């Protein structure tokens, strides 16, 4: 098949390609048909000759979350039994939004976020049939860097305790809806630039009373996206409340490259100092809490 360049036949038997088509791994990634010779167990010489004692194959898939255009083989590469492949991609940048340039000015204000309308749909069954054959989900919010959202204090402050903020678990529910909002207090964030490269993870867990909780999956959220249009220095003269920015989140829940349900919520962000807290963040939290 290689000598006859029957690439379509080889692609039909490609295990990774089959798994991608069935969404058994790397969901959301794309791979073009491999119209190039197998890349693994080639002899170290120009062109494509193979070690007959080993099964030659496509050693590494050329999958990507970018949009692949074409693959180009490198037959003159002779320093390894792997023949590399060049890939061309098209890239569409994410929209950063209209970033308020005053957002780079540091003040004594801190960034708070109120998460509301939180729900998940089509979660997998995590418990054994003898235990009800369902799931007991809750959502925990984590950040990288850790210090942004992690709290060491055991004393609750504005709804916080020790560790990561999280919802209550809902028993036996594969389509949970959390009616109470969640307040997120961002540590050490004084301006937009402090969030460069920072990621927040909404991690969906299955609660287990007698053993460790199991991860159902994760949603990744860019923190800068949540506050791109507001500034810690900005003042709204028409209201005592600080300007806020609301973002709708709707995304698949991933674990090990596969989708395990869908996640939705609204996140409203505001920069406030302690004296502005009751008029701004506490107001948002109470308002969303009464929406049943």
Number of strands: 10
* Count of DSSP-assigned helices: 3
Class by helix and strand content?
mainly beta
Mean pLDDT across the residues is 81
* Terminal Cα span: 63 Å
Based on Cα principal axes, name the global outline. elongated
Unreliable parts:
none
Radius of gyration: 25 Å
Report what the structure shows.
The chain is mainly beta and 292 residues long. The chain is built from 3 helices and 10 strands; from the N terminus they run H-H-E-E-E-E-E-E-E-E-E-E-H. The strands form 3 sheets. Strands 3, 5, 6, 9 and 10 form a 5-stranded antiparallel beta sheet that branches. It is elongated. The model has no long low-confidence stretch (mean pLDDT 81).
Q: Brief overview, please?
A:
With 292 residues, this protein is mainly beta.
């Amino acid at each position: 098949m290689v000598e006859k360049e029957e690439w379509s036949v080889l692609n039909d038997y490609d295990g990774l390609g089959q798994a991608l088509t069935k969404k058994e791994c790397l969901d959301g990634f794309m791979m073009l048909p491999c119209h190039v010779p197998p890349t693994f167990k080639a002899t170290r010489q120009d062109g494509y000759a193979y070690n007959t004692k080993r099964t030659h194959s496509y050693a590494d898939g050329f999958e990507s979350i970018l949009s692949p255009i074409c693959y180009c083989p490198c037959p003159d590469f002779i320093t390894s039994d792997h023949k590399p492949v060049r890939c061309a991609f098209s890239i569409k940048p994410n929209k950063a939004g209209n970033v308020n340039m005053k957002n780079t000015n540091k003040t004594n204000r801190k960034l708070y976020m109120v998460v509301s309308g939180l729900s998940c749909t089509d979660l997998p069954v995590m418990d054994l049939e003898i235990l009800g054959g369902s799931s007991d989900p809750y959502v925990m919010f984590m950040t990288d860097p850790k210090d942004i959202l992690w709290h060491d204090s055991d004393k609750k402050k504005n709804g916080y305790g020790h560790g990561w903020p999280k919802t209550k678990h809902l028993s036996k529910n594969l389509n949970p809806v959390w009616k109470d909002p969640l307040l997120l207090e961002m540590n050490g964030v004084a301006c937009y630039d402090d969030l460069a490269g920072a990621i927040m993870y909404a991690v969906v867990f299955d609660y287990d009373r007698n053993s460790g909780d199991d991860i159902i999956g994760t949603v990744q959220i860019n923190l800068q996206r949540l506050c791109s249009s507001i500034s810690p220095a900005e003042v709204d003269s028409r209201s005592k409340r600080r300007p806020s920015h609301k973002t709708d989140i709707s995304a698949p829940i991933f674990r090990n490259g596969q989708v395990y349900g869908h996640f939705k919520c609204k996140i409203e962000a505001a920069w406030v100092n302690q004296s502005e807290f009751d008029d701004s963040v506490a107001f948002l939290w109470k308002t969303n809490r009464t929406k049943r």
